[in-house]
Amino acid sequence: MAELRIVVDHQKIEYEGPFDLKDLVTMIQRFMFERGFDRKLEKDFESDTKTGKEVEWQVANWKKVSDYAKYIFRIRMLVHDYVKVDAEKDKKKVKVGSGRIIIFFDGLLELDYFHKWDSRPFLVFLRSLYDKFIFKFYTERFEQRLTYDMTHLINEVEKIFNLHRHYRVVKITSDHAH
After folding, report:
1. Are 141 and 109 in contact, with CB atoms under 8 Å apart?
2. Under DSSP, is residue 3 helix (H, G, I), strand (E, B) or coil?
3. CA 65: distance to chain centroid?
């Protein structure tokens, strides 16, 4: 079995206020595409409630960085009470969404993803020695790079929320306001 190391564990961003969910998802997908990650959509649920939309979106992105190591980014987004609103930005009216959002980020490093060292217990023992002593410098570099990329993504998401903090909600224009 391949070794799976948790490098970034459940980093969380919480935000409440105006934001554009579609732009946020597009930015995350573009970020991953630009860095050569493949993507698997794990969850994409949306339901309407009296207070707005409830959305759960989870994606796993992965990238093989060598024939031995692979990065895995898991992003889970929970959106509550999401409604379309009229907002004012620099005295101009714009339509945006508004609600509560929680985003979880996990960064994993998978070693020996081809399972070359799993056929016999002695090879598993050699792999652990190899990872802990001989290949340690490389695995640490992989972990640092994964942490750097994940931190960069989290900063980009925070920039989007900081941009929308300057919007002032004028009125709710959704058909969810009963």
Report:
1. no
2. strand
3. 19
